[in-house]
Specification:
The structure is a single chain. The chain is an alpha/beta fold and about 675 residues long. The protein has 22 helices and 18 strands. It has helices at about 5, 55-80, 120-130, 175-185, 245-255, 280-290, 300-305, 305-315, 340-355, 375-385, 405-415, 415-430, 435, 445-455, 495-510, 510-525, 540-550, 565, 590, 610, 615-625, 630-635; strands at about 110-115, 145-155, 155-165, 165-175, 215-220, 240, 265-270, 295-300, 320-325, 360-365, 390-395, 440, 470-480, 485-490, 570-580, 600, 605, 630. The strands form four sheets. Strands 5, 7, 8, 9, 10, 11, 12, 13, 14 and 15 form a ten-stranded mixed beta sheet that branches. Helix 2 crosses helix 16, helix 10 (about 375-385) crosses helix 12 and helix 14 (about 445-455) packs parallel to helix 15. The longest helix is centred in the N-terminal third of the chain and has 28 residues, at about 55-80. The structure holds iron/sulfur cluster (SF4). The site of iron/sulfur cluster has 16 residues, from helix 19 and helix 20.
Amino acid sequence: MSKQILGQATAFQYERDPNAVRFPQNYGKPNFKVIKGAKNGHPTAHTNGLDPVSPWTRRKEKWLTKTANVAWNVFQGINKVLGDGKPFQPAWAPEPLLKSHQKSKPPLGWPRQTDSLCPKCVKEVREGIISGKMNLETMFKHPGEIKATIDKRGNEIWMTKTCPKHGTFDDLMAMDAEFFGVIEKLYPGRDFVNPKNEIRNHGTSTIKYGRGVVLNVDLTNRCNMMCDPCFMDANQVGYVHELAFDEIKEVLDNSLKIKPRRQMSVQFTGGEPTLSPFFLEAVRYAKKIGYFSIQAATNGIRFAQDLGFAKEAYDAGMRIAYLQFDGVTNEANSHRKIGNLFDIKLKAIENLHQAGISVVLVVTLVNTINNDQVGPIVKFAIENSDKVNFIAFQPVSFTGRDEDISDEQRMAWRYTSSHLAHDVKKQLGVTEPLRDWYPLSIISVFANLVDQMKGPDNYWGTMSCSCHPNCGIGTAIMVNKRTKAFKPVSEFINLPQLLQDIQKVTDANRGAILTKAQVGAALLRNYMPEKAPAGLTLKSLMEKFDKQSGGALKAGKGEYGEGAERMKDEWLCLFVGSMWFQDVFNYDFRRTEMCIIPYATQKGEISFCAYNTGVGWRNIVENMYKNASVSEWYKKHGRHEVYATGKAVDLPDFTHTVKLPTFTKAPEAPAGLKTSSGGCASGGCH
Ligand code: SF4
C-alpha cells in the first residue's frame, strides 16, 4: 500500500466511533401480521416480537426434544456396550475415515513455537529464482524459514520471530486472547494425511492434510479494473499469464487423479476470470467432469452489463458468484476507482439472481479503513437473503507490493478474525464472540457423517473443511427471507453439544438407518424451541439442516431443486465466514499444510497462501508459464477495457430489486476510505 495513497487515512479507534451507524433497537425483530388460519398454513404475526408459531406447537416441540433426549441416552448406552463400529473405508478415500479420537491436531494454545518465514529473506529468494540467479530446487530447501513464537501479551496474542540477518518481526494474531483460545479449543482435528502425489509436491509448502474445499483456477491475470494494490498485481506485472483451454482441462483433470477424490467448489479466478475467452467453456467442462459447485470470483462488471451472459454462465453450470463487495455505498467502494461501483454491484446481483446464480459477498477488511462496513454488509445480506447466501469476510493480508508496508502502517491496518467477531456484535447488536463463532473446520464433523450416510461406494467424498483454526472462522444466522426475522443459530441450537453428538454417531458407525435415527435425536435434543426465531418450525429446521449439511438426514437424497428453485425456501442459514489469509508477517507452515484452498496450476495444486504469499509460488509459476509481455499481447489480441479513473461505468440499465439497508444515520465515508486498500473477489483479495 503506497504511503502517498494512504496519507490522510483517519485512524478509527477500534472502540467503535459513537457516531458510527446504529440500527433501530428492535432491529431483527420481525414486523409482520398474524392472520388466523392463513391458507398456506404459514401463520404470520403483526406485532414485533410475536412468534407466529403457536405456543401449543412450541410446547409439542419441547416435548419432542425431551423425548429425543431419552432416545439419545438409550442409543448411547447401547453404543457404549458395543463400542466403536468398524472403520469406514469409502472408495474415494486413501484410507478409512478417522474416528474423532484418532484425528491429530497441530500444536495449539500458547506459548507455542511454529515454523514461519523471514519477510525479507523470502523476497530475496523469490527474486533470485525469477532472475535465474537461483534454481527452482531452492524452493525445496526451506528458503527464508525461521522459527516463530505465538504467545499472549496482555489480552492479545502475538507472533514474534527473529531472523539472524534481518532482525525481529512482531505481528498481532488476535486482539482478544480468550476468543482465540475458544476457537482453538473447538477445533475437531485434522482430516487424513494425503498420500504423496505428483500434483502436491512443493517442499514445506505442500498441502499434507485433508481434501480441500475450494479449487482455485486462475484463468487470466488480466483484469478490467485497476485496484491499487491488487494482491496478485493484475494488469501490473508487465506480462500476461492466461491458460489455454487445454491447460484448463489439464489442471481440472489432474484434480481428479489423486485420492481423496473429493467434491470441491471449483472457483475460476484471476484477474477477472470473465475476461478469459474460455470462461464459459471452463465452467461447462468443470460441470462435465462432475463438480456440482462451480463459481466465479468476479468484480461483477460483466454480469451487470449483460443479463444474457449471466444466463449463459448458469446454463454452463455456474452456481455461485464470489462477488467483490467492500461496502453498501458508492463511497465505501470508491477506493476501487469506479465512481458508481456499488450501483454496478446492485445490478450484478440482480442479473445473477435472475439467472439463478447465488451470490457470496467477498469483503476485504482493513482496520480503520472499512471495518465500519461490517454491520451494514451483514444487514444488507439479511435484507437480500433471497439473493445472497454467504458473506466471506477477508481480514487484510499484506501481499504483493504490500510486503513493503511500514510496521506502523501495518499495525494500524492489521485486522484479525477476533476484530471481526467483535465488530459484528458492536455494529449489528447480535452474536456473542465467545458463544456464536466457530472454526470453519467444524464443517468436517458434518461432512464425515454425510460420507458415512452416502455409503462406501459413493464416487465422491463430501466437501469437507478442516483448515487450521487460525485460518477460518464463521457464525451462522438463521434468516426468514420473507419477514427478515433472524437469530444466531447457536442461540437456539446447543452447537458444541450437537458437534460432540454427531462425532459419537459417526464413530459408532451403526449403518444408515440407526445413524439417521441418532442424528435426528441429536438435532432434536439440542434444539431450544423456546428460543427459535419467530416463525421457524421444527419441520423447516430439519429441512434446513439436511439441505445445508449436504444430506446429514437424507444422505443427499433430499429434493431441494437447482439454482433459483433451490433458493425459494422460506429460511436461509446465512453463513458469515472469515478466511484470514496469511502474509509473510504472520506466516505459519502448520496452517499451509492443512490448507483447504488449493490453486490448480501448471505446477500442481498449491496452497492459496503459499501461492500468493509465503515463498510466493505465484510469481515463479507465472514467470515460468507466461504467454507474452503485455505489449506483445495487446498487439496480438487487442487491448481490453479497464475501468480505473474514478469514472462511472455505464450500463444498459440500472434497474434492480435489491433492497438497500436503512440506517438510523446515513454512514459518513470514513476520511481514509478514498485511500483504502484494495481487494478483489478472486478469492484472495486482501
Ligand atoms: S488459504 Fe491460507 S488461510 Fe486459508 S486455509 Fe489455506 S493456508 Fe489457511
